[in-house]
Amino acid sequence: MRAIVLREDKQVAIEQCNVTDLPEGDVLVKVAYSTLNYKDALALTASAPIAKSYPMVPGIDFVGVVKESNASDFAVGDTVVLNGWGVGEKHWGGLAEYARVKSKWLIKLPTNMAPQDAMSIGTAGYTAMLCCNALRDAGVTPESGNILVSGATGGVGSVAVAILAKRGYSVTALSGKAEQAEYLTGLGASAIKDRKEYEGKARILGGQDWAGAVDVVGSHTLANIIANTQYGGVVTACGLAQGMDLPSSVAPFILRGVSLLGIDSVYCPQERRQRAWNDLAEELDPTVIQQITHEIGLDDCIEAAQNIMAGSVTGRYLVKL
Ligand code: NDP
């Protein structure tokens, strides 16, 4: 099997491995598609210590077909999807032709979703749905007011814009790419805001512009979003594209009752995952998915990861195995 392999000396290369080299697990999956998430880009470019042991096959998600199973829940021939659980970090991941994993990490792909569509959106899309569901569960409705999505041309942001617009929300896309205005309005954004406005130090309280937000950027941007959220509004935080810090104050929380909800996709309980994938299959138009997808092969992954790190990518890389 061909696989991308990370070595301890930061070398990254495509190698020929044996299926018998795969780590332990009760299900063997022939990987059909994987994808490049921001975390994969960090791993492939050795920009952050994502791999916890070496050699490591990166790839935090994949979709594929079960080839061998010792688990009662999964039979040979089932199409399965995996996101997170430390795969691609502590356990060999999806940027390989085969993966052997624990059955408790897998969910069955909804039958009304094509495997390539699942990985076109990948962990980014599934995380976007976790954020959108969290906003709705917290009582944010289309009538509550406008929703802001940061990093809007990226993977999480693009899918979040599309889902929220489909659900009837009025969505403002916060983006650094003015040239992608048509792309963002095509996804359903009703307004676009230059991310420069939110990149600097936040005031303690700003205008009450947002009923809710999906933030993938963190740092000053998240602080500005919180400061500009309306009374009782809800902000979901899932990313750190600008930074991991949060230079904010308690003022929006104690004076405006703003809520900040953390979103984690990696160890998210299976029930919430299955709901998110079912919702994605029901609500996300495949033509929107195709619009955000660039299909590549294993050989293209390293260069694509560099593009992600440069912040120059619009949409998602789908990796065909
Ligand atoms: P992408 O690289 O696809 O998109 C990130 C976007 O953020 C870019 O397209 C850009 O959008 C914007 N951006 C990039 N750099 C900066 C910067 N310095 N300041 C402000 N904005 C910036 O990444 P993903 O969408 O896949 O992931 C986004 C974030 O979410 C990452 O930090 C990732 O680690 C995190 N994440 C977290 C998960 C979780 O479980 N919590 C799961 C998945 C992702 P634009 O040009 O439009 O402004």
Please, could you describe this protein's structure?
The chain is an alpha/beta fold and 321 residues long. The chain has 2 domains: 2-109 and 285-320, Alpha-Beta Complex (Quinone Oxidoreductase, Chain A, domain 1); 123-262, 3-Layer(aba) Sandwich (Rossmann fold), CATH 3.40.50.720. It has 10 helices and 15 strands. The chain has helices at 38-44, 115-137, 155-166, 181-187, 196-199, 219-227, 251-256, 270-283, 286-291, 301-309, and strands spanning 2-6, 12-16, 27-36, 61-69, 79-83, 98-101, 106-108, 147-149, 171-175, 191-194, 210-215, 229-237, 259-262, 293-297, 316-320. The strands form 3 sheets. Strands 3, 4, 5, 6, 7, 14 and 15 form a 7-stranded mixed beta sheet that branches. Helix 1 packs across helix 10 (301-309), helix 2 crosses helix 3 (155-166) and helix 2 (115-137) packs across helix 8. The longest helix has 23 residues, at 115-137. The protein is globular, with a radius of gyration of 19 Å. The protein starts with a strand and ends with a strand. The model has no long low-confidence stretch (mean pLDDT 96). The structure holds NADPH dihydro-nicotinamide-adenine-dinucleotide phosphate (NDP). NADPH dihydro-nicotinamide-adenine-dinucleotide phosphate binds at residues 37-39, 123-124, 127, 151-157, 175-177, 195, 216-217, 221, 238-242, 263-266, 308, 311, 313.
